[in-house]
Each structure stands twice: as C-alpha cells, then as structure tokens.
Amino acid sequence: MGILTRAQLLAQAQLAAGNDQTTGFVRTWLDAWLHRTAKSWAWPVLKARIADLPITVGAVSVDVGNGDFVATYIHRIFNPLFYRNSDYKQRGRIFIRQILDANYDKDESVTLVADRTGAPVTCKIRMKASGRAFTIYPDPTPDKQYYISLDAHTIPANIGSAAANDSQVPWYQSDKTLLQACKCALLEYDDGGEEGPALEKGLMKLAAMVIDDRDFDGQGPGDNTLMGLDPSVFL
Fold this sequence. Notes:
The chain has helices spanning 6-17, 23-40, 175-190, 197-216, and strands at 47-55, 62-64, 73-77, 81-84, 91-96, 117-118, 122-127, 134-139, 141-142, 146-155. By secondary structure, it is an alpha+beta fold. It folds into 2 domains: 6-43 and 173-216, no CATH class; 46-155, Immunoglobulin-like (Sandwich). The strands form 2 sheets. Strands 1, 2, 3, 4, 5, 7, 8 and 10 form an 8-stranded mixed β-sheet that branches. It has a two-stranded parallel sheet with strand order 6-9. Helix 1 (6-17) crosses helix 3 (175-190) and helix 3 packs antiparallel against helix 4 (197-216). It is elongated and about 70 Å long. It starts with 5 loop residues before the first helix and ends in a 19-residue tail after the last helix.
C-alpha cells in the first residue's frame, strides 16, 4: 500500500493540472481504474486466506464471497483447498476439477448425492451470477460437518465518491502510479470523455508504469512462486 491518502493524491494531481473543479469525476474514475487493475494481476497485497468455512453434512454446495461467509469480493480461488473436521483429527486437500469434467458419476445434478458421501477429495467451483463470489461443489458429499480453508485473490471494495472517504489510502502500492492515474482522469474530463492526444499519451505512460510496478510490487519474495516439487514427496 502507498502512503498518500486519496485527498493528498487528488490535491497533488489537481495542482499539477491547474484544475480543482473535477474532484467528483476523479474519485469515480480512480475507483474504476483501481477495480480493473486489481483484476489484472494476482497482486500479493490482494491475496487472502479464508479459513474455517463450514460445510454441513449432506451439503451439495457452499457459497463464499461478497457477503457469503466473508464480505470480501473474490476474483479467484487458488488450488488446492484444505479441509478439517471439528477436532482437527481428519484433514486433507481438496483439488479443483475442471467444470468440463466428463465424469457424470461425480456430477451433483445427475447423481444421488447420498450414494457418495465421505471426506471431500475434489470439488468444482462456479462463479455466481454476481461475478463477485463462488459456489464450491465438494465430492464426495460431506458425511459430517467439515471446515474448508482456501487462499483467494480478492478485490477491495470501492473507496466511494463521498468526500468523507478521501482519508482512505488506496490499496495500490505505488503513489507515483496513482498520481498518474489521477492525471489521466483530469485529462479525460478536460477532453469531454474523448481520448485526445494528451490523454492517449498519459494512458500509455500509466500502462507502462503498471507493468514496472509488477516487477517491484506484483511479486513478493516467496509469492507467486511455483517450486515444482513432487507433492507426493514434499508436502
């Protein structure tokens, strides 16, 4: 995370542009840019552990994200998930299956779930209609209550257009890039929503800065790293 609040970012960008009449437009523009940028890359700062999601006996599915169990907007769930029972004596991994899996014996809609119960070994995951949460379908169907833990790429809620929210610090880690984003918002406002030469140049610079930020902030030590060790030997 950077150190400048949104109010400080707005003030600096408006001072550089000589325009202090477009605060509301910049707030909304910056929110939209932050949302899109969050989805563009699995930024380490946006990764979160969601632990102890309960799934009851015989449950065909369980929802998570955007108010279901957690308020967080989830963009992606990482493989594998993990489960435990109430006393931690039964634990294991749940691997994600492809949605296009052709094995109808494991499909929750065309099989009798009571015929295949036990500790979950695999699951299918479908995005909900909101686009902000997921439904997890475990296989086998739980024979007792289990608790699922998972790692996810999350998307922060918008800061919002109210002045009262200007004290917040955006999640993005480079203040320099955030200032460039605010400048692009001002250029778009000045161009009446059209993409003039100055805005086109500003957006190209902004895109290049985001690419550079991925090298510095987009991959933390030990993060986004696949060591490739045999999981049957190295747990």
